[in-house]
UniProtKB/TrEMBL annotation:
All copies of domain HDOD, residue ranges: 1-190
Pfam families documented for this protein: HDOD
Official protein name in the record: HDOD domain-containing protein
Source species, domain of life: Bacteria
Organism: Thiorhodococcus mannitoliphagus
Family annotation (PROSITE patterns): HDOD (PS51833)
């Protein structure tokens, strides 16, 4: 992870963060700056006016939201470089990111920057496992789209740890907000309503809807686990029927 991510989190943790210094920190990495501005001005963030500088982004979005976005873009750079066994996982993450963007556009309980970062981070452990374990990509393709909790069992049996734990530990190391780290850790939990924190619960619900929508192209959406997770997530986020129909149309390319 680039040093700018940790420096930015350190600045945010100060009693009185210096917004100008934060902007200067991001500006030290021109490639990252360009990608951050491109994402801010994309439909994902629905900005009413174009943001052309990091300093403007800091003043418009606030340091916390911008730090989330910088972290996500730094991780995206790593994903884009993925090759071989991890490629199938990184491509799936990109599709989930697209769906998370769409879901964030119709719900009010999850900020776009947090939706973006969660979509990038939730399966980062799978990327690591794909590079470490021969045959992991095949097991991931078999289990992840239809029965992700079975994937966790497989990971624990082979490696003694699962990808949600790895993601949670990385989130702590990268100083992500607590509710984001907890959402990564619990995003495959069977009982969504058992999660007490509403912010964490909303993020998990968004994760489940984006995963369900991404699974439609593979024909995996009818799996019982996918159906159950989708139903509880829709209830949690109170997604209206017409909004849901539009999201499914986006996922399939066909009217629902």
């Amino acid at each position: 992870m680039p040093d700018v991510v940790f420096a930015l989190r350190d600045e945010f943790a100060r009693d009185e963060p210096d917004l100008r210094r934060a902007g200067d920190l991001i500006g030290q990495d021109p490639a990252l700056t360009g990608q951050v501005l491109k994402t801010i001005n994309s439909p994902f963030f629905y900005c009413p006016t174009k943001i052309s500088s990091v300093q403007r982004a800091v003043s418009m979005m606030g340091l916390a939201r911008l730090a989330n976005l910088v972290t996500a873009e730094a991780l995206k750079r790593i994903l884009d470089a993925g090759k071989g066994p991890s490629r199938v996982v990184s491509e799936a993450i990109m599709e989930q990111l697209r769906m998370a963007s769409a879901v964030a556009g119709v719900v009010k309980s999850v900020a776009p920057d947090e939706a973006y970062l969660l979509a990038m981070m939730q399966d980062v452990g799978c990327l690591i496992f794909a590079e470490l374990v021969d045959g992991y990509g095949s097991e991931w393709l078999l289990r992840a789209p239809t029965a992700p909790r079975a994937l966790l069992e497989y990971e624990r049996g082979v490696l003694g740890v699962d990808h949600v734990t790895v993601g949670f530990l990385l989130a702590g190391n990268w100083r992500l907000p607590d509710h984001l780290a907890l959402a990564i850790y619990h995003h495959h939990v069977a009982d969504l309503v058992a999660i007490e924190d509403p912010a964490t619960r909303a993020l998990i619900a968004l994760s489940r809807l984006s995963t369900y929508l991404a699974s439609i192209s593979d024909g995996a959406q009818d799996a019982p686990e996918m159906q159950d997770d989708c139903e509880s997530a829709r209830d949690e986020l109170a997604v209206a029927e017409d909004d849901w129909a539009r999201l499914c149309e986006l996922a399939t390319g066909q009217p629902k």
